[in-house]
Amino acid sequence: MPECAQPPPPSVPSEQLDQAAAELGMGGSLAPETSEDGYRRRMARRKEVQQQRVGERNLEKGLVLVFTGDGKGKTTAALGLVLRTLGHGEQVAVVQFIKGGWHPGEARALELFGESLHWHALGEGFTWETQDRDRDRQLVQQAWQRSLDYLAAADRKLVVLDEVNVALKLGYLELEQVLEGLALRPPLTHVALTGRGAPAGLLERADLVTEMKLLRHPFREQGVKAQAGIEF
Known about the structure:
alpha/beta; Rossmann fold; 6-stranded parallel beta sheet; 10 helices; globular
């Protein structure tokens, strides 16, 4: 080793990488150093830890992603995945449970992708609008059969089951049905499941779970109606 060379920084044990990253922090005004040299050293070490994290975690697999909670944005999060996947030239399927009484703006916009995107809104609206449990249950089961076709298809990189959590919560679909359907996927096929009240068994099976928390909503606090581009 040349006389002026510095030894490489010590690697962090794999099980301590996340803790080390959290302790080094994000930088900015959150860092405690007052000197620029101290700050640069902290951020250089943070970069080393992050590179080690990325280098050691290089698996690829089809993910089960659940977006649930009372807050707004669950379907929107799934549609962000749809847009990214389409942007990479892959094929996507969206099956909407419960929803179906209107043609949302996102479905119209994504028509530009043609056969790369298959979109099915197979419900007839909210339960207080349909007022027919047997009909609702029948439509959910039909939507599930369509979903199974896509879950088993090797040509679909992403399958979105929109509001399927609500269908489970209402008792129109059994958890075991969904878990068995997820097992049909090819190894690199992702599936996103949205809707309030995702059951514990689904959360345990998921690779990623995000819960949207409601803090404020214009409909409740201000009487603002559902608006184009925001709700549909």
